[in-house]
Automatic annotation (TrEMBL):
Signal peptide: none annotated. This is Helix-turn-helix domain-containing protein. InterPro entries: DNA-bd_dom_put_sf (IPR009061), MerR-type_HTH_dom (IPR000551), MerR_fam (IPR047057). It comes from the Bacteria. Keywords: DNA-binding. Residues 45-113 form the HTH merR-type domain. SUPFAM superfamilies: Putative DNA-binding domain. The lineage of its organism: Bacteria, Bacillati, Actinomycetota, Actinomycetes, Streptosporangiales.
Length: 133
């Protein structure tokens, strides 16, 4: 269930956790355990309206993040965009940068690079740890 979080593998943040950026679930499946959805950061639980309200942004801002390949929302069976908690954290970081005057495209690139750096550091730290620790 742990998905790669780095866009260095050719994915964006939102799909594989940074994208597929970023391992999200493809949709709502009957075989998914209901309890697992509460803890699944990749479960697309939030509608565009709810996500925009939570973040204090417009739906157009969320669409701009999608166009910039920062987040790629899943779609409900009716075609509506659905966002995960992980994607909302990325969007919140983008909003911080945009509020500081960074253009949306640049903010998205910064976040992707931050995510790649964090993943590289995680891999290096795991490699440097002796086996069994």
């Amino acid at each position: 269930m742990d998905q790669p979080r780095s866009a260095a593998e050719g994915e964006t943040l939102a799909h594989g956790r940074i994208a597929d950026t970023a391992g999200s679930r493809a949709g709502f499946r009957a075989e998914d355990r209901f309890e697992d959805r509460f803890d699944d950061e990749d479960y697309p639980a939030y509608s565009m309206g709810a996500a925009a309200e939570m973040l204090g942004v417009s739906p157009a801002f969320l669409r701009a993040l999608g166009a910039a390949k920062l987040i790629e929302p899943k779609r409900s069976s009716g075609g509506h965009r659905r966002y995960s908690r992980y994607q909302l954290r990325l969007a919140a970081r983008a909003r911080e940068l945009v509020d500081q005057g960074t253009p949306v495209e640049a903010a998205c690139r910064i976040i992707i690079l931050e995510d790649q750096l964090a993943e590289a550091l995680r891999i290096n730290n795991a490699r440097d740890r002796p086996a069994g620790h």
